[in-house]
């Protein structure tokens, strides 16, 4: 059988990778522990139910059996969520006997997976980050002399988000800060909690730099501004993105990725801080992310480039058009309406933003079933993921 790709996870961002690879004549198998829209894509060669990525023993047995039973030995594996990323990275030495793993080894991945390591490394390199402390106990925040509001966030997102339904907790005074810290300690180890300065009007200044990175340099890349996300403040995921070109972001991100010897594709998120006119690195996602298919609109299929490198063909391409758009209709429409009603954007701004050709997250005329499946699954998706 022709060597193909295994995409672990089938949510909308995984669907984008499935389509991208399959349109280059690459067979794609999708794995997921639950029902997903990628299962309904005509580009999915086969859907296989998998364990959740947080069960190491079951996942190891599953992948070893998968190689033999489905004749997928040597296929290229892409994670699409943090649990799968962590598992594949930590167990890459064992799994490499069966598959080609696109995720870097754990001594590299940990600098992106754990924000404590991210911020410590970035700070040591003088890469701007939001003002952050990693308290060792409640006493460390008792005399915190910062301006409010302040946010409390996890160093490792998944457990916290699953249990609270939020990415961060916001505190407008010291009493709320203690309450947020105590609440976070109920769900995650206290040493995984970060206290961070809240950058004003952050929702207006969300950016990302996303390269195909190898041997210390970006072989291709795309940058976007993310004007809308769900929810608008501290969003779970972007709902609308547009390509931009900001060399400062590339310089900062490349320095970080070089320092950790990163290989693969990733999203490096930035916030622009109006107070000091600085782009501050927020986090690194070393896997496919929500809006990655905007790269299709600028003819830079980053996932495909990574696949080709895994089979021995290095591709690189520089330059792309700005003002190309990506939109996820399911979540962007209600967010846009809400933002217009509360004055965050004007109706004219919204109309301008949706004019012209764009890349859709799910909707596709040549592959329509996932879009209708997502509509049918809407109550389930809202309950399970919040979007």
3D structure, described in words:
This protein has 387 residues and is an alpha/beta fold. It folds into three domains: 5-105, Rossmann fold (3-Layer(aba) Sandwich), CATH 3.40.50; 131-197, Dna Ligase, domain 1, CATH 3.30.1490.20; 202-356, D-amino Acid Aminotransferase, Chain A, domain 1, CATH 3.30.470. The protein is built from 15 helices and 17 strands. The strands form three sheets. Strands 10, 11, 12, 13, 14, 15, 16 and 17 form an eight-stranded mixed beta sheet that branches. It has a five-stranded parallel beta sheet with strand order 3-2-1-4-5. It is globular, with a radius of gyration of 20 Å. The two termini are 37 Å apart. The model has no long low-confidence stretch (mean pLDDT 93).
CATH superfamily of the largest domain: ATP-grasp fold, B domain
Uncertain stretches of 5 or more adjacent residues: none
How many distinct beta strands?
17
In one word, what is the shape?
globular
Q: Find the CATH topology of the largest domain.
A: D-amino Acid Aminotransferase, Chain A, domain 1
Measured by DSSP, the beta-strand proportion falls in: 15-25%
CATH architecture of the largest domain: 2-Layer Sandwich
* Tally of distinct domains: 3
Return Rg in Å: 20 Å
Major sheet attributes: 8 strands, mixed
Report the mean per-residue pLDDT as an integer: 93
Measured distance between first and last alpha carbons: 37 Å
Number of helices: 15
Structural class: alpha/beta
- State the helical fraction: 25-40%
Under CATH at level 1, the class of the largest domain stands as: Alpha Beta
């Amino acid at each position: 059988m022709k060597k193909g790709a295994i995409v672990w996870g089938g949510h909308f961002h995984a669907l984008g990778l499935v389509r991208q690879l399959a349109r280059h004549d690459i067979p794609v198998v999708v794995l997921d522990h639950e029902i997903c829209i990628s299962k309904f894509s005509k580009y999915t060669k086969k859907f296989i139910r998998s364990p959740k990525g947080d069960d190491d023993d079951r996942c190891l047995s599953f992948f070893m059996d998968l190689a033999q039973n489905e004749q997928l030995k040597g296929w290229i594996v892409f994670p699409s969520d943090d649990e799968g990323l962590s598992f594949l990275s930590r167990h890459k030495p064992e799994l490499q006997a069966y598959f080609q793993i696109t995720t870097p080894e754990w001594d590299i991945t940990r600098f992106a997976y754990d924000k404590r390591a991210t911020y410590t490394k970035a700070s040591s390199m003088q890469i701007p980050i939001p003002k952050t402390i990693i308290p060792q106990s409640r006493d460390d925040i008792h005399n915190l002399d910062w301006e409010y509001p302040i946010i409390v966030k996890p160093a490792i997102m998944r457990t916290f988000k699953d249990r609270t339904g939020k990415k961060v907790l916001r505190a407008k005074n010291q009493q709320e800060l203690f309450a947020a810290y105590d609440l976070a300690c109920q769900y995650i180890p206290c040493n995984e909690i970060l206290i961070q300065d809240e950058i004003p009007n952050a929702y207006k200044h969300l950016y990302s730099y996303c390269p195909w990175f190898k041997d210390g340099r970006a072989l291709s890349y795309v940058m976007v501004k993310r004007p809308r996300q769900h929810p608008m403040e501290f969003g779970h995921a972007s709902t609308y993105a547009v390509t931009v070109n900001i060399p400062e972001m590339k310089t900062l991100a490349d320095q970080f990725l070089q320092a950790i010897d990163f290989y693969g594709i990733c999203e490096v998120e930035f916030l622009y801080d109006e107070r000091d006119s600085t782009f501050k690195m927020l986090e690194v996602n070393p896997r496919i992310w929500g809006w990655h298919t905007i790269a299709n609109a600028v003819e830079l299929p980053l996932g495909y480039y990574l696949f080709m490198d895994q089979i021995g063909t290095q591709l690189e391409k520089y330059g792309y058009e700005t003002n190309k758009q990506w939109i996820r209709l399911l979540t962007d429409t209600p967010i846009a309406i809400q933002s217009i009603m509360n004055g965050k954007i004007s109706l004219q701004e919204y109309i301008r933003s949706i004019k012209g050709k764009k890349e859709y997250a799910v909707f596709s005329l040549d592959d329509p079933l996932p879009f209708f499946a997502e509509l049918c699954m809407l109550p389930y998706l809202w309950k399970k993921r919040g979007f």
